[in-house]
Specification:
By secondary structure, the chain is an all-alpha fold. It is about 70% helix and about 0% strand. It is elongated.
Length: about 160
Amino acid sequence: MRTKHTFRLPPDLAGQLADHASRKRVPQALVVETALASFLSPDSSERMEAALGRRLDRLTRHVERLERHITISNEALALFVRFWLTATPPLPDTAQPAAQTKGRERYEGFCRGTRAPAGQGPDPCPGDLARHRAGAKLRQSFPGLIRQLVSFATPRHATPI
């Protein structure tokens, strides 16, 4: 035996109920009954927990994949830096200022060339020149810092290519 209940719905919710019932070609009472049964069933929370668990597992796998890609990229960069440092002879002290000036010019040209056409999109090098100049001052005051950073960046467990 069914019990009759009377309740009032806001107009927008009543419209959604009518639309859904007409699309599914079922009575509105059946839609309300199914929704209440689903909402009040004890396994509803278990289903939601299982769905959340699946989503968290998928996110965990995605983060692990990103972590792996970042590790590979870091090792590749460290190998490149190590090779570049071993293959490039150091400049004499008299050539350092000219090389730094030329490097700044080339970097500014790189930033100009990588900006999106017609000024659209984000700046790929925002504030890098100011950070570069600050870094140059830091390098002048701490000459061994760069060598320490490069030695720190070399991979300890990299396999030879």
